[in-house]
Every structure is written in C-alpha cells, then in structure tokens.
Amino acid sequence: xxxxxxxxxxxxxxxxxxxxxxxxxxxxxxxxxxxxxxxxxxxxxxxxxxxxxxxxxxxxxxxxxxxxxxxxxxxxxxxxxxxxxxxxxxxxxxxxxxxxxxxxxxxxxxxxxxxxxxxxxxxxxxxxxxxxxxxxxxxxxxxxxxxxxxxxxxxxxxxxxxxxxxxxxxxxxxxxxxxxxxxxxxxxxxxxxxxxxxxxxxxxxxxxxxxxxxxxxxxxxxxxxxxxxxxxxxxxxxxxxxxxxxxxxxxxxxxxxxxxxxxxxxxxxxxxxxxxxxxxxxxxxxxxxxxxxxxxxxxxxxxxxx
Length: 306
Hints:
InterPro entries: AB_hydrolase_1, AB_hydrolase_fold, AB_hydrolase_sf
Organism: Ciona intestinalis (Transparent sea squirt)
Structural class: alpha/beta
Strand order of the largest sheet: 1-2-4-3-5-6-10-11
Order of helices and strands: EEEEHEHEHEHHEEHHEHHEHH
Family: Belongs to the AB hydrolase superfamily.
Strand content: 15-25%
Oligomer: single chain
Keywords: Hydrolase, Membrane, Transmembrane, Transmembrane helix
Largest sheet: 8 strands, mixed
Shape: globular
Transmembrane segments: 99-118
C-alpha cells in the first residue's frame, strides 16, 4: 500500500528473462495490460490506475530494456516484434485468453501492433498520446531503408561501448527533465523510483538498457501501416492531449493520411494537458478511461472527432 494506491510487485517469466511490474486489483477481474512509453517505466501509471474502476485487474509492466525488467542479450536488436513477443508471453503466463490494452506513447504503438497480429486476444485498445500504427513521417527526408541502416549502425556502435555513468539523484533528475520538459518534479520523482539503481557510493545509475535510447524501434510506410491497422478491428480509443504529440509531431496529420477518422472503430478524444497528462493531471485522463472501461465490448460510436 502506497499513498498512490494499493499494488503489489509482480514478476513474469518470458522467453528472454524476467519482466517486472506492478499489479493493482483482483486477478479474477477482467485484465487490463498497461504499457509505458519509450525510456519510461510502469510507474508512469501510478497516479492514474488508483482512479480507475475497481472491477478490473491492472497489470503495469516495465517493458524489455526498461525499469527492473530484463534487457535483450548482446547482438539482439530492439524492435516492435520483440515487444509483440513480450506481450504474448505476458498473456500466456497470466492465462489470459483476451484482455484490454492501455498504452502510453511507445506502449500504445506496441499494443496496437500486437492487436493487429493477434486481434482475437485484444478486446479494446486505449492509446494515451500515442501514434498507434501510423506511417512514418520523417523530418530528415530520409528513405525508410536509410533509417533502418542508421538504426543498425547506432545499435552496433552503442553495443560496443556500453557504459553506465553514475549521477547524484539531482543530476539524474535534471537529465530526465531536460529530455522530458513536460515532467514536473513529482512526476520525475515517480519515474525515477524504478528508473534508477543506487550504487555503493551513494550515487545512481540509470536503470535502462542504453541501446534502447539509440535504436530506432520501428518504421512503417503508410501502405504497410494501413495493412496492420485494418487487422486491428477492435475498438481503438485515441486520447490525445492538446499539447502532446498532436502538437509536436502532427499525429492528426498521420491519422488523416491513413483515413482513421473515417474508420468506425477508431474513437478520438481530445483532452487538455501535455504528453504526460496521465501522470501530471491523472483525473483528466481517468474520466475518459473510466467511460471506456465501463462500456460493453462493442464498436463504439464516435465520441469526439478531431
């Protein structure tokens, strides 16, 4: 029991090692798998989940290479397929035939890809400021193949020079907030609870595989993204804060280009806040997520077309 709700630490063995996370609620209730964003950890949901309906079982995991979970072995590349396999392993271990998926940013893209590959296993998807499955928009005007090459080169370069510098807590916090300007002090502290490991000298190392930082996770041409998107035919709810990816990367343009506004199973919900609104002002997001969870499992009508 913490001031942010009642939860317990859980460990889930998958094919590459042990995943770690937090579970809230009764395992006999309908499951909700919660996946965090790039370079974050499952603590991103610590303030949101206690505000959600108590008749669901929430499992928030540190994804491979993040937080307390296992990293991939040397020579193995991080990709969307690694994370799809990870989700399958979680579901198998938990004994879930199907579940609801809640994903922030990269976690949202990951669950969307999983739902396209295993559509019968996902009842509905809730995307928190995530592009989902979208065609890649590249500001550098590089071809997809060029970006794949850059990603491989970065991976090999980093893997040959793996080092984990140590910081004071304030130094680590400053680095986190410098790269995530949306985070206030409390939100940064919450993420750092699982994002740091304390060394014998009292300083801290970042608890994350450094290869995750440099490697491009996945790229899709618009045509490829559409193929995947059409397979994900369950209700998909896009919760998009006005100062989040909508503003920074033009996620509206991506969705429009893919024709998602016209697809009946895609619901777009506009809220106030930034990329971390679910952690900074969780009540805003909790209201929308609660409505979604309380609905029957069917294709919902448009709630708000953006």
